[in-house]
Design brief:
The protein is α+β, with helices and mostly antiparallel strands and 285 residues long. It contains 6 helices and 10 strands; from the N terminus they run E-H-H-E-E-H-E-E-H-E-E-E-H-E-E-H. The C terminus is likely disordered.
């Protein structure tokens, strides 16, 4: 989707506005047995291994018109993966590796990147499960941070389609300032009212969405949760027809409670059961 720019600015020096898109996606499922749970983790580790994540980030760089300088990737034991990519608007230059920048070669669940006049894209995955309720949750954290005229918002729809998100929590912020030829500061160089403006209509129709925006600070926040719920889409290694009515009710309550707590960012003691509806979303089992 096209970014609506302000009238073309004649700048004094380099456009050093930093635009950061933080995208957290959650995939929730119910794995009844330890074997099903292990199979789900193996599926996630295969579906979102560091090689595939690197391909996704490379596509994102292409979408936003960035040049890839460096890629560092790591698969973790027993689960999870990370990829960090340095990008630039300009020509390719010599750059330090991520290991040199962070002064460590140890695989860690997050990476700190410091690089002047450049930008970066990172993704980290966090599969986890409830100790005794059968709930498994996969989270992927993606940051796209750019300097200059590049905006990561144009890659938002691609990221949404690259991950099967039951819940998405998205933040966008513009930091710093740039100057025109007269020295006047500009703290943003494009028009934005809501992150929702940059989502495709067919994608928005699938989700209930809430905005919390601080316009004077150029901070934009959108939370999304799927509207429709079909238990079959959340069962791994089984189908709802294999369950007794009471089992289906309990599992459904657990799943909706899990999703509600993630969406609202707090523990919920009781959850009203939503009416089950059919949806076109499919999940591998």
């Amino acid at each position: 989707m096209e970014i609506k720019s302000l009238k073309k600015l004649k700048l004094y020096g380099f456009n050093n506005l930093t635009k950061t898109l933080c995208f957290n996606m959650y995939d929730i499922c119910y794995a009844k047995s330890p074997e099903h749970h292990q199979a789900y983790i193996e599926y996630i580790d295969e579906e979102y291994n560091s090689d595939r994540l690197a391909r996704i980030l490379t596509d994102v760089a292409g979408i936003i018109g960035a040049h890839v300088l460096n890629i560092a990737k790591q698969d973790y034991e027993p689960q999870g993966a990370s990829v960090t990519m340095l990008i630039s608007e300009g020509q390719e230059t010599d750059t330090l590796s991520v290991a040199e920048l962070s002064n460590t070669t140890e695989p860690i669940p997050s990476t700190i990147v410091a690089h002047l006049d450049k930008s970066h894209i990172t993704v980290h995955t966090y599969p986890e499960n409830h100790p005794n309720k059968g709930i498994s949750t996969f989270r992927a954290d993606i940051d796209v941070s750019t300097c200059g005229e590049i905006s990561p918002l144009v890659a938002l729809n691609y990221l949404m389609t690259s991950f099967s998100s039951d819940i998405a929590i998205i933040d966008y912020r513009v930091r710093g300032f740039t100057r025109d030829l007269n020295g006047k500061k500009f703290f943003i160089d494009h028009k934005i009212h809501s992150i929702q403006n940059y989502l495709a209509n067919d994608r928005k129709e699938l989700y209930q969405m809430i905005d919390v925006n601080v316009y004077q600070e150029n901070i934009f926040h959108t939370k999304m949760i799927l509207k429709d719920f079909d238990l079959d889409n959340y069962l791994f290694g089984m189908a709802k027809k294999e369950l007794l009515p009471n089992e289906k009710k309990k599992i459904k309550q657990r799943l909706i409670k899990e999703m509600g707590e993630i969406f609202h960012g707090k523990n919920i003691p009781k959850v009203k059961l939503r009416e089950e509806t059919e949806t076109s979303h499919s999940r591998r089992s």
